[in-house]
Amino acid sequence: MSLRILMVEDDNSVAEMMGMFFKKEGWQQDIAVDGVEAVDMFKENADKYDLITLDLNLPKKDGIQVAKEVRAISPTVPIIMLTARGSESDQVLGLGIGADEYVTKPFSPIALIARIKALHRRVMMEEDVQTQENNNQEYEIQTAHLKISKDRREVLFDDQLVVDLTPKEFDLLYTMAQKPKQVFSRDQLLDLVWGYEYYGEERTVDAHIKKLRQKLEKVGAKVIQTVWGVGYKFDDSQVK
User: Fold this and answer.
1) CB of 234 within 8 A of CB of 183?
2) In this structure, what CATH number is given to the domain that contains residue 110?
3) Do 9 and 72 belong together in one domain?
4) CA atoms within 13 A on the CB side of 14
5) Which domain does 64 fall in, by range?
6) What sequence ranges are listed for the domain Response regulatory (predicted)?
7) Theoretical Cys-Cys bridge with 60: which of 36, 53, 122, 224, CB 3.0 to 4.6 Å?
8) pTM
């Protein structure tokens, strides 16, 4: 597996350590030492990078703003946020604006490599599906208002296309829509969507649900309901 990584890191010792492990894997990396440089490098050639490791605390422009600007350019490039901050609110904020994973410093380089590999595998599988020529117009899931094609990664609400869903957002919706009205706990969704290789917090689910709702509601799809103290469910039976 050959990767080209944009490493956004202003700490030389951390960058050198990560670069050493990336080199052992046969990966290449470009390094940006501040937020402005990171956005400029990504904007110049977004298709060049398979993944971004992004420090939260950066000079000139912090990691949150960098992630927002990167997501405006590419809604799907994988982002792993690295930070010395450990508060739950920082994690939710980072994931809420589009990061796929959140790693708190100090971290194990071996664990980070495993996370990168797992995330990249998922993305490549999803891209393979998207690039296949598939003229089959059948939808695996059809509810009162929603149609979902897993092969095409396509979601329609009353025949309106739901756009810019990230891989995790699509998987969350697909998982819940398979069993309308069933309540899924955060632990269940972490297990079903992120899988056993994920070592994050339950609030990760909340952050992704929030972004998923925002994108669905752009086409009037208020179909993700919170069941307080339990979790979330999909239900479009009451949509008018």
Assistant:
1) no
2) 3.40.50.2300
3) yes
4) 20
5) 2-123
6) 4-120
7) 36
8) 0.55
